[in-house]
Amino acid sequence: MIFLKTREEIELMRESALMVSRTLAIVAREVKPGVKPIDLDKLAEEFIRDNGGVPAFKGYKSHNGAPDFPATLCISINEAVVHGIPTAQPLKEGDIISVDCGVKKNGYYGDHAYTFAVGAIKPEVQKLIDVTKQSLMLGIEQMISGNRIGDISYAIQQHAEKNGFGVVRELVGHGLGKNLHEEPEVPNYGKRGDGPKLKEGMVLAIEPMINLGKKDIKQLKDGWTIITADGKPSAHFEHDVAIVNGKPEILSSYAFIEEALALVK
Ligand code: MG
Ligand code: MG
Fold first, then answer.
1. Which ligand sits closest to the CA of 83?
2. Environment of ion ligand 2 (residues, CB < 5 A)
3. Who's near 15: CB < 8 A, 6+ residues apart?
């Protein structure tokens, strides 16, 4: 069942999404060689709780018997695709890190992610980051009433594969609302015209996970971290998007993050 949201609900969801955006901007200021992911996680949790939100990932139940997710952020470094658990291992020059954050406020979830470079990175890895973000934006452009989920999926896949990158199949975007994961699923690969029809009031978390090498992934023994099977880097960007007046309206924002990144450069 797909839950369509009213304008009032969409405004509440924007609040949750922007709290995630502001949290990611705080992380953006601190991402540099030597910083420990667990310290980024602590900053994020404090900021969310100070602002009346609840971290949505902390305590999230696994489906495979692993312990509940222990942190506020998923921090996935280099070959980690998503669902990485923050550790005390300091970041190194040349790493890339996907930081994914979920917040619940006023009963509604925000869920959004950004991939950061740690210091100077290889040009091919920068291209992976750029193309992943572009593919997210191209997917969002397809989020028009009357289109179908497959139109979003196709746009993402085409752009990533045209650039020679692998598109992860096993993990997908999703509906968002009073639940962190709602119907419909939003795959990052697919055919135009396939899948559920897009309607006014639909809110989706669109989140391409794109690999520098092949599309295949595996899971670490911690029961959470997903890594690329070939060990090459992976990037991940996620926005929360509503259909308002038939067109996509991005509820989350990269503006705070990009301002923060410009200041630390
Ligand atoms: Mg997410
Ligand atoms: Mg998500």
1. 1
2. 111, 205
3. 105, 106, 108, 110
